[in-house]
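Before drawing any conclusions, I looked closely at one protein's amino acid sequence and its backbone structure tokens, quoted below without any editing.
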Amino acid sequence: MTAELLINVTPFETRVARIEDGRAEELYIERECERGLRGNIYKGRVQRVIPGIQAAFVDIGLSKAGFLYVADVAHGKEQRDRLVEAAATSADGEEEPEEAPRRRRHPDISELLEERQQLLVQVSKEPIASKGPRLTSLISLAGRYLVYLPQFDHVGIAHRLEDPGERRRLLELAEKIKPDDGGLIVRTVADGHSEEDLLRDLAFLQRLWDDIVHNMRSAPPGTLLHSDLNLYLRVMRDFVDDEVRKIHIDSREAYDKMKQFAARFMPEVLERIFYYPGDRPLFDLYGVEETLEAALKRRVPLKSGGYIVIEQTEALTVIDVNSGSFIQSRNLEETGFKTNLEAVHELVHQLRFRNLGGIVVIDFIDMQDEENRNRLIEVLKEALRRDKAKSKVVQYSSLGLVEMTRKRTRDSLERILLEDCPHCGGIGKRKSARTICYQLFRDIVAEARAYPAERLLVIAHPEIIDLLLGEESEHVRRLEGFLGKEIALKGDEALPMEEYEVALL
């Protein structure tokens, strides 16, 4: 499989699309006003220690305090080893399915931290929805080939580097060049690279760490000491592999920076970087804008005439598969199996492009044949292998649902690009016009009884007024008789459907 990266840069936003076999499979968005926090290093101050949940809230100068779990406080060999492994996994882009904290014996959080204590922390997980960022006190600095762990005496290697001979060679190199005051993790992209390449990368990371330590001494709590690279340079560092044959970028300034970055850290990538000066927008040329618009809708059509419906909630994502107008097969079992197979590839595409994570529940079309059900699970697992985010698929539940998890590392497209409707409160529904009319009748009665007036004026959306003058006119007439007052009606298009005014005249 070959891939291309498209990079669209503007002063306010950067977008990166990964194209596989001519289709946009992944999309990364970074807005200048909302730069991601993961990898940032802060001088923090413990705000509150909560022994009941074995965690602490740490003020890092943001609107929401960071969350530091006891297992993420660097202490003791067991905790250190787990955190080192997590740093290697995170920096190498190899994500594990989200799971509950492992049951390990840790010292009480109160023995490790106290309120108002100052410490160096790093964001390990972006804030999501109402949650603040997840923090760790293990500092890791990712370079092109290495991850530098300035606080720990450890040497490791990324899990995805599988060749035994190459693993052994790189581990020996890492042991040889490891500084006395820090540890190293060898990244997957170090495959085939020389000792000189690794030493150059390490020298850069050590200079970076020295700057952080120097700035920390005089910085007040809540100070940002180090932030990660911007999006297009992070993509260069973390996601350019042998599959990526071309990198197109539509900004001359960003193109020059990427060339400089590649010349210093990734010379083998230099010839793959191309500046796109065309008049037609780069994302339009490859159909990314069209894919993006479709990804913001609940319903996704399938070529056969079936469709899937995707509902993202706070707790989980639900995907429903429907056969729709597909009736070409001989029986219901065959129809369901063919539609489900087609839906698998589309829903995996949607999971990747929308960046849906956490628990995912899939309601495939019912099938009675056990062989078909097993085959469907195999196809789903196979399709997910192309996804960099790790996932775990569970067999059919007792209710006939397929449950899976996908690592949640950043907000989904929906949370980045959409907001709750101010009229429906984000539920996606609104009160019917008749429901609003009957609510209005109750308010008219309450107003007429509470305040003396000869007439009442109702100002509402024209759709409500039309209903009051039409199908509900008899009820308006009866209400006038009941109150002994005239009710005048006036439409105002500026008013939302559910808002109205009752004026006393």
Remarks:
- Residues 217 and 340 are 59 Å apart (CA to CA).
